[in-house]
């Protein structure tokens, strides 16, 4: 659902995919190859939301802000299922874990990894390439080259997803039993511990 609000209409690049069950309202800019999953709410009613090229905002995320402020997801930012970004800035190629909360005027640097369920308080600034966990958030170590390569590979899957959705996603009636020779799905990325260790 795409809504104009107070004379401001969302601007969405033609290569992006916004799921029909997502809600995008008002002063929102969605860039090239961005994926917005179902049940996301991007509410640009009181301020501006900028989602740069190659970002993904996964299922049930909320993006909002205090009046007159801007939320920015920089190029390649990866926002995990159920996360909330309220008035923060997410750096280029950073990952925000599932159900994490980023509060107003927080700044997450480039190539950071914010853990699942982490709470980043208002005005906290995280330098580039840091791993952040906990409630409240605490920097625990540096992001390695291997770790950022793994994160980037995961984001690349989401950058392909908009086109895959345009080509193959369609409403359907369910089968009543599995068909013979049902295709197997490939393992295109493994979880971090399986892939690289701790």
UniProtKB/TrEMBL annotation:
Region (Disordered): 172-198
CDD domains for this protein: LbH_paaY_like (cd04745)
Name of encoding gene: caiE
Gene3D superfamilies for the chain: Hexapeptide repeat proteins
Source species of the chain: Parvicella tangerina
InterPro entries with a match to the protein in the record: Hexapep, Transf_Hexapept/Carb_Anhydrase, Trimer_LpxA-like_sf
Name this protein carries in UniProt: Carnitine operon protein CaiE
Superkingdom, natural source: Bacteria
